[in-house]
Amino acid sequence: MAPSQEKANHTLTPPMGPGVQSPSLEEPTAAVPPPPPKPSQQGPATVTPTGAATGAPPEAVAQQGMYLTTSQGARLRSTDHALKAGPRGPVLLQDHHLREKISHFDHERIPERVVHARGSGAHGVFVANGRASKICRAAFLGKDVETPVFVRFSTVAGFRGSSDTVRDTRGFATKFYTSEGNYDLVGNNIPVFFIQEGIKFPDIVHAVKPEPDKEIPQAQSAHDTFWDFVSLHTEAQAHVAWSMSDRGIPLSFRMMEGFGIHTFRLMDAAGETCLVKFHWKPRQGVHSQVWEETQMSAGADPDFHRRDLYDAIDAGAYPSWDLGVQVMPDTPEEIFEGIDLLDPTKFIPEEVCPVEVIGTMTLNRRPTNFFAETEQVMFNPGNLVPGIDVTNDPLLQVRLFSYIDTQITRLGGPNFSQLPINRAHCPVNDMFRDGFHQDAVHGGVAPYKPNSLDGGNPAEADDDSSGYIDIPTPVAGNKVRELSATFDDHYSQATLFVRSLSSAERQHLTSAYTFELSKCYEEAIRVRQLQCLANIDADLCAEVARGLGLSAPQPTTPPGDVEPSPAVSQLGKKWPVVGRKIAVVVDSDTPPDAVASVREAIMNAGMLPFVTAPRGGKLGDVVVDRTFLTAASIEFDAALVMVAPVPAPDALPAFDAKSGQDTTGRAVDPRVVKMVAEMFRHCKAIAVTPGATSVLAAAGVHEDAPGMVVAEPVAAVAGLAGLLASHRVWERFPARVTHES
Ligand code: HDD
After folding, report:
1. One Pfam annotation, family name (predicted)?
2. Cα–Cα distance, 287 to 256 (Å, whole number)
3. Of 422, 449, 469, which residue is a domain's last?
4. Mean pLDDT score of the chain
């Protein structure tokens, strides 16, 4: 994937659509048509609830005409002043426009999602490679079939206005607008879940949400009620291990894996079935922030992930994911290699069952209107198409009820499927009528079956084209409130995960547990969680216990021997650098033509340059993207510092701490020094041109340290790209941390 030539020449300033004038300083007075939606931002095709294209232009459903009107279309003279009895008199109730304007405003907010409230979405396309046709009859999985998609990424715990970069599981929900109806794959970025049964969902959510007396903390799991629950409800331990790892603090939505978690049943054209688990594999690589970065970005840019997604799409660096499946035989016991496929707290290591790629999704359009699309989109794991079916996973079964139910409150009634973002892109004839916010003017007189008055319409499908085929499997048993004994093992997959991590990841995991448990007020909860850690891994338990100043308990269930799964580690691989962000740090001494060439070299490598200068405006023809005042180290994956004349003086300038200048007499800007020091600490690649080495000295960074490049600008870009392929300079992390050190 490379950015298109046209897109690659981005300026990182907001694009203006054709015919849209730059805003003037004065308030415009002449009437002009409303701006059309930007072609790159159009929502899905406008179709009626019965599927017929309306033919209406997209703007017909938005604002029309050149004049301000009431909601009924009457033109208005003024919207700045209420109608009053005299210029100093009381406001008159008679003012229709005032009442209508304020009343509509009073009802602008809808309830946020009870979980996953904070999220952002994008449109795109899924192209199947046809490999799944052997196992699944779904039309959208046929070779080269292109299906429009809308994806919403989210955090779970935080409110709608919370920060993007908190430690949390991320939602990864995809709506495929297929020719056979909408198919929703509503997954997360972690392959296991907290609970085995849906009936426990309110409990885990109540535990992680802010505590009910003070309503703190916001969007955090580092508090007593969360650790109280998960240390008692030990089936949560595997998920907790994943969310305490780097998986809980992704660098970008673009760089997360996605998992369907549950086992699904696929059926081919001949009626043969198999069991699968779905995986999304980001072509950008799987990368995370480091903990300090998450906290800095929560302050410097709470919209960090949202902005990153939209910046990448605007720059033409469209993120893409391969969709893959692990395919397992559909046996009566539904157990694979000793793992119960109905237990959503378990995953199947890729070394045990490889992931086979069945298609690729590319996100290439951001929404035109956040509320209409990202906020109003609804997902439902029960939205299935012919060929894809659920299993008896007791978590999934309850989800099938919950997602429709919640929309009735959140989207204000039963007609949420008629909202443009939720409409199927194929004919819909559901015989549902009336209800709040009914958008359709249905014809016919017989929304019931059987009927003769509408000629029998709608007809029923045959088995070949019908969704929701119930495979006639025998169901028997007493009514019980219990789970199969094959769900009893709560620890071995947490052990497997922990022992699959690299040293640096393991260090992050230890720090995360220690940090979170240190935030609990109740010692009994810390001790109880240490008991769980003892059952997962003795070293991990000992390290966390040391950090907490407690003693490590003996396990009650000693960890068994597990085969590690290298695939769960995010380290040790090489990834494409397309879409990675490079700060090009310059000042008034940097020759503009050198900046222009570096910018071009970065874009030629598929990366995104951000020219960062002491003040805004232009350097020659190059637009300054960030100033030293607005730039933050956390925004960038790497930096190229060229704050000095090029070519360099003979002797590399050093920093004189007393004067704050370098040995050539130039002041070293403390904001650049801070950025370099932070990026070094966060193990990011840093390049400096030979004339700028005093910045390194001022930041206390040695030019021979791992991941440092001292080179002429264009050569430095190649050096940075080489380092970025591993994401971070992992050698800078100490081999193993202990809390004594
Ligand atoms: Fe859920 C939203 C993912 C279990 C009940 N869930 C929601 C979203 C995602 C997930 C990504 C956000 C969708 C969007 O962007 O609009 N949920 C999961 C996964 C689960 C899971 C991967 C386990 C494997 N969820 C789960 C259970 C229940 C729910 C067991 C209830 C019993 N989930 C909901 C919900 C939400 C929701 C309350 C909130 C807003 C919404 O549905 O539309 O119904």
Report:
1. Catalase
2. 7
3. 422
4. 90
State whether the beta carbon of 397 lies less than 6 angstroms from ligand 1.
no
Q: From ligand 1's centre to the CA of 176, what distance in Å?
A: 17
Tell me if 673 is assigned to some domain. yes
Flag whether 518 is in a domain.
no
- Centre of ligand 1 to C-alpha 384, Å, is 16
**Cα–Cα dist 321/355, whole Å:** 13
Q: Quote the DSSP letter at residue 14.
A: P
Q: Is the CB of 173 under 6 A from ligand 1?
A: yes
Summarize the confidence of residues 436-465 as an average pLDDT. Answer: 89
Our count of domains for the chain comes to 2
Query: Any bridge partners for residue 278, and if so which?
Result: 325
Task: Tokens 């392929």: give the residue.
Answer: 725
Q: What are phi and psi of 217, to 5 degrees?
A: -90, 160
Q: Is 402 in the pocket of ligand 1 (CB under 6 A)?
A: yes
Q: What is the pLDDT of residues 480-522, one digit of tens each?
A: 999 999 999 999 999 999 999 999 999 999 999 999 999 999 9
State the pLDDT at residue 316.
93
Mutate to test the pocket of ligand 1, among 115, 393, 406 (most ligand atoms within 8 A of CB): 115
- The answer as to whether 658 is a domain residue is yes
Between the CA of 304 and the centroid of ligand 1 the distance, in Å, is 23
CB distance 197 to ligand 1 below 6 Å: no
Atom of ligand 1 nearest to the CA of 152: 15
Ligand 1 geometric centre to CA of 44 (Å): 23
Residue 186 Cβ inside 6 Å of ligand 1? The answer reads yes
Angle, alpha carbons 658-661-666 (nearest 5°) = 165
With CA atoms as reference, report the closest residue to 535 among 519, 551, 521, 552.
552
| Section 653-657 average pLDDT | 75
- The CATH number for 254's domain is 2.40.180.10
CA distances from 599 to 14, 638, 723 (A): 18, 14, 18
Mean pLDDT of 695-709: 93
**Mean pLDDT along residues 576-596:** 94
Residue 451 has pLDDT above 80, yes or no: yes
Above 0.95 for ipTM, yes or no?
A: yes
Catalytic residue, chosen from 97, 116, 262, 727, is: 116
| Residue 116 falls in the annotated catalytic set | yes
Mean pLDDT of the 406-418 span? 96
- Closest ligand 1 atom to Cα of 398: 32
What is the pLDDT at residue 560?
87
pLDDT per residue over 5-63, tens digit each? 444 444 444 444 334 456 678 887 887 777 665 544 444 444 443 444 444 444 455 67
The C-alpha angle with vertex 259 and arms to 257 and 261, in degrees rounded to 5, equals 155
Q: Which residue out of 129, 188, 189, 422 is catalytically annotated?
A: 188
Domain boundary among 375, 405, 422: 422
Each residue's pLDDT tens digit, 591-632: 999 999 999 999 999 999 999 999 999 999 999 999 999 999
Q: Which atom of ligand 1 is nearest to the CA of 173?
A: 11
Q: Are 464 and 530 in contact (CB under 8 A)?
A: no
For the CA of 154, the nearest atom of ligand 1? 15
Annotated binding-site residues read 113, 152, 201, 399, 403, 410
Range of the domain at 385: 122-197+246-422
Q: Which atom of ligand 1 is nearest to the CA of 395?
A: 30
pLDDT of residue 528: 98
pLDDT score, position 287: 97
Tell me which residue has its CA closest to atom 4 in ligand 1: 399
pLDDT at 489: 96
The closest residue, in CA terms, to atom 27 on ligand 1 is 399
- Is residue 612 within 8 A of residue 584, CB to CB? The reply is yes
Cβ of 418 below 6 Å from ligand 1:
no
How far apart are the C-alpha atoms of 181 and 140, rounded to whole Å?
Answer: 10
The binding site for heme comprises 113, 152, 201, 399, 403, 410
Tell me, yes or no, whether 406 lies in a domain.
Answer: yes
Q: Is 478 a known active-site residue?
A: no
CATH assignment of the domain containing 585: 3.40.50.880
Ligand 1 atom 42 nearest Cα: 403
Locate all alpha helices (DSSP H) within 558-662, ordered by sequence: 592-604
* Lowest-confidence pick of 71-80, 314-323, 643-652: 643-652
